[in-house]
Amino acid sequence: MPGHLFLQGEIGCGKSSLIREALLPYLDKVGGFFVQRVFVAGRYAAFKLTPLTTAKEYNVDLHVDNIQGLDNLFLYCDNNNKWQIDLQVFAKSGVACLQQSKIASKKLVLMDELGGVEFACLPFLKAVWEVLNGPIPALGVLKLPRNLDKLKKELAEQPENEAGGIYSLQAFKQHPKVELITVNAENYDRIKAKVKEFVEDIML
What kind of architecture, by CATH, is found in domain 4-203? Predict the structure, then answer.
């Protein structure tokens, strides 16, 4: 069975960009989701879980006048400048994105990214593990632990404890079908070529 490829690295090192570049020619064959960073007046205001659909919609940065009316915001900055969590976004929209990939017979599932507050959402994790244990390969990004720790310090309330057990972050990393690669400035071009080859081997 084909395996799954996940990238990790420092914020801004280009993980999502190189994945996007590799996927653009084949978007009709790819399901899953990506996270949009929502900016208001040039500042982080929210993070939005977005289904992968068209090239026009596949942009990791979204600039808006305000976040009112935006759906699927799983992290957002409230009027008191405190970050709030909505795990129901993963339980509903996240699960739907992953299930739809199977229903629509997609050849690849995008999960960009994992390793954050969603590891407290058991329904979503069960859907993730269905992908990991299933026949459709996945490509995605896994958040570094220190980046998650930095995020938690800015939250108004700490998220629920990680689901743990068979659905823990450690179990994800140790899954026999998951290959986890760290991206940095020195190996960027090599990893970019590896991701491109991974996608083309599935699509062509």
Answer: 3-Layer(aba) Sandwich (3.40)
